[in-house]
Amino acid sequence: MLEVSNLACSRGDHPLFSGLSFSLGAGELLQVQGENGKGKTSLLRTLCGFMQPVAGEIRWRGENVEELDEDYYAELLYLGHHNAIKDELNALENLQVSAGLAGGELSEKEALVALRRMGLKGRELLPVKVLSQGQRRRVALARMLVSQAPLWVLDEPLTALDVGAVGLIQELLGEHLARDGMVIFTTHQPLAVVGVETRHLILS
Amino acid sequence: MKKMSLFALLLLVIRRDLLLAMRRRADVLTTLVFFVMVVSLFPLGVGPEMDMLRKMASGVVWVAALLASMLSLTRLFAADYADGTLEQMLIAPQSLSVLVLGKMVAHWMVSGLPLVLIAPVLGLQFDMAPPALAVLVAGLLLGTPVLSMLGAVGAALTLGLRGGGVLVSLLVLPLCIPVLIFGAGAVEAVNSGLNPAANLELLGAISVLALVFTPWVTAQALRISME
What we know:
With 204 residues, chain A is an alpha/beta fold. Chain A is built from 7 helices and 10 strands. Chain A folds into 2 domains: 1-75 and 149-204, P-loop containing nucleotide triphosphate hydrolases (Rossmann fold); 85-148, no CATH class. Chain A has helices at residues 40-47, 65-68, 70-73, 91-101, 108-117, 133-146, 163-178; strands at 2-11, 14-24, 29-33, 55-60, 63-64, 76-79, 104-105, 151-155, 182-186, 198-202. Chain B starts with a strand and ends with a helix. Strand 7 of chain A pairs antiparallel with strand 1 (2-3) of chain B, so a sheet runs across the interface.
């Protein structure tokens, strides 16, 4: 369970938000909302430990994440604005490397199954640089299929995706939440999961 | 999915970086061609006096190796930084230092090892004696990993800065001076009939010291650069 208390963030000298408190329990879906520049991405990056909060505390299962460090990262999946995939590698190699960095050894078979489910059948062995933006995003999002982390932090996961892929992401989120996972995400597109109430956190 | 051991992770990073280098061969060749060019310019510039060339050979090769290894440093973390892979490395549940060590090893294999292998050929241009050549190669073998490791610290500190390329050279080159002194000193010693072991041992000691501290320092520098 993720608890955030009295969090304040700033970008350089410019304060973004302060006094932010919320908690996220098993099976909960939280959407962070706010206009451009209100600190949605900064909040997610702070949750991942890329940025230090100005004030406040982030706790995971009751312990401060700075003290948990690698134990916290083992339970975290982060998908950012950047796809974190290499143009020179193919989809299969990319997925295996990402899974490796996240601490798991992924067999070729498991990786192929995940890529096919993401609608990349026949594209597994092409260098990613010949794929379209949407297909690259799908390669990046295939990490959601092979991840065993309970906490998903997704920054604009739907960018460049078509309607079919958006449906697939909703399905994946549903499965993850049903496994008692937690999701915190930002998006400017409508995203809802059947049978789960989306909680909203508004930054203003 | 099986859990990955630290050693498997190290191999994964090395394999990935080597694969990327193989698919971007131009980058690898630039370093090597630069090294060969710089070393070959000296005989043309100072004239074909064998005595003088023999005397300056080790110094020229070492300085050229130092400059060549600076060329590829900016690329060490820049690509991973730009496409978001570095963010994923920072939140890797294993040690970031091990990931960094993997990148250092791959960088050395791509930009340091070719220099070591081509150095004897370049030494012949300077009419170096076989024992001196052997010591030169041994010295480069011990010294070039240090250049990659110290370079990684500089590359991590200047990550995302404009003009980082020049800055990293200014930061790293002074730190490489001991490597240059002992590396060239070993060849000097064998040329004047002394035992080069002391110089080579000191180079080895510097290597071990760098191996222990630089991965951790680089990891800390990366965390600071990502903020």
